[in-house]
Design goal:
Layout lengths: L18 E4 L1 H5 L9 H13 L4 E6 L12 H7 L7 E5 L3 H8 L5 E7 L2 H8 L3 H6 L1 H10 L3 E7 L12 H13 L4 E6 L6 H14 L4 E6 L6 H10 L4 E4 L19 H10 L8 H15 L7 H4 L17
Parallel strand pairs: 1-2, 1-8, 2-3, 3-4, 4-5, 5-6, 6-7, 7-8
Helix pairs in contact: 2-3, 2-12, 4-7, 8-9, 11-12
The structure holds 3-hydroxy-3-methylglutaryl-coenzyme A (HMG) and magnesium ion.
3-hydroxy-3-methylglutaryl-coenzyme A binds next to helix 4, helix 5 and strand 5.
């Protein structure tokens, strides 16, 4: 404890294992205009597993009218070859979604609630209060089916409709989850409004209010500071991060949403900083290129274009600057 009563963050030590949850198949595919064929989705998830990712958010059991891109949730999950140690998750907004997810091989049901009223109304057609009221039956269904539950909060670091979101709004939802027996807390930076200062402020507030909860940081790179925010998270002791292959991603119900932090860029940063990820970067870059081919447009990921740090080029690849 510091003198003012604030609990001091313990930085993640060099060499520590960092848990990456790949969310591209959910956060990424949900915002693509074209509906990606089910077999292509399954192939990408299986390649991600082969590249060493141990946690993958595969899809959402939301209304297929709201998000037609993920209407094939059960079929995609049925096609995933889950290897030992691999954990699969899916978003679930209500009891109907939980009933659908319970019949699949998903391990984790991810709840989500916005910390801002305007985004909540847009995203789930309900106020924050009404959204939270949907969750106790989901927890019951998950328990009965032997599934874990993660509590997600969206617009944690700012809302595209309301602007600043006070940390107390996030704390309120976190406490609600904690009181439901959920210890796994996901902090969503829906439209990339997090900054090093706001990350520190929200983590400090949560450390005081719900120190027993394990935090995952879910950054979007909308303003180019996603990986800087990861460095702040590491210095604050956070070992769990969400990211998206190729930098896909974005919430269709949040104005100005763009991609998550990019998985292969995150793996590169972590490995070059001495952390363990368990991921084969070369293989992951191959999956990013495959995903780009399937999506059919250039993705924002940078390491997939430049290659790892010691990628060498032939001397004949460029001309000589002879005067
Ligand atoms: P609603 O229209 O208010 O729902 O939508 P309803 O309960 O009135 O039901 C209307 C119809 O939908 C009914 O069908 C229901 O059965 C059906 P009908 O009787 O008319 O034929 N329905 C469902 N069908 C299948 N699965 C379900 C389901 N629920 C109802 N689960 C609802 C409310 C929440 C369902 C809708 O607004 C919705 O699905 N919203 C999801 C939006 C979404 O997926 N957003 C993106 C994910 S959040 C995000 O990206 C942020 C995040 O990444 C973190 C971050 O970045 O910050 C997680
Ligand atoms: Mg997101």
């Amino acid at each position: 404890m510091a003198q003012n009563g604030e609990i001091i963050a313990m930085p993640v030590p060099d060499g520590a294992a960092i848990e990456i949850c790949e969310v591209g198949p959910r956060d990424g595919f949900q915002i693509e205009k074209a509906i990606i064929p089910t077999d292509r989705k399954i192939a990408i998830v299986n390649e991600l597993i082969d590249a060493g990712l141990k946690k993958i958010q595969v899809t959402s059991f939301v209304s297929p009218r709201a998000v037609p891109q993920l209407a094939d949730a059960a079929e995609v999950l049925a096609g995933v070859e889950k290897k030992p140690g691999v954990v699969l998750s899916a978003l679930v907004p209500n009891a109907k979604g939980a009933e659908r997810a319970a019949k699949t091989q998903v391990d984790i049901m991810g709840l989500f609630c916005s910390a801002s009223e305007a985004h909540s109304l847009k995203n789930v057609n309900a106020s924050i209060e009404a959204t939270l009221a949907r969750f106790p039956p989901v927890v019951e269904i998950a328990k009965a089916a032997g599934k874990r539950v993660q509590g997600g909060v969206a617009t944690v670091f700012g809302c595209p409709f309301e602007g600043e979101v006070p940390p107390e709004a996030v704390v309120r939802i976190a406490r609600f989850y904690r009181d439901l027996g959920i210890v796994d807390l996901n902090l969503g930076d829906t439209t990339g409004m997090a900054t090093p200062a706001t990350v520190k402020a929200v983590l400090a507030a949560l450390r005081q209010a719900v120190p027993e909860m394990a935090v995952t940081l879910h950054f979007h790179n909308t303003r180019g500071v996603g990986l800087a925010n990861v460095m702040v998270g590491l210095s604050e002791g956070i070992t769990r991060y969400d990211s998206s292959i190729g930098g896909l991603g974005g919430c269709p119900f949040a104005a100005g949403a763009t991609g998550n932090i990019c998985t292969e860029d995150l793996v590169y940063l972590l490995q070059e900083s001495g952390y363990r990820t368990g991921v084969d970067l070369d293989r992951l870059i191959g999956v990013a290129r495959l995903t780009q081919d399937v999506i059919g447009r250039e993705l924002p990921g940078q390491v997939m274009k430049a290659g790892p740090r010691l990628t060498r080029h032939g001397l004949d690849d460029v001309s000589t600057a002879a005067g």
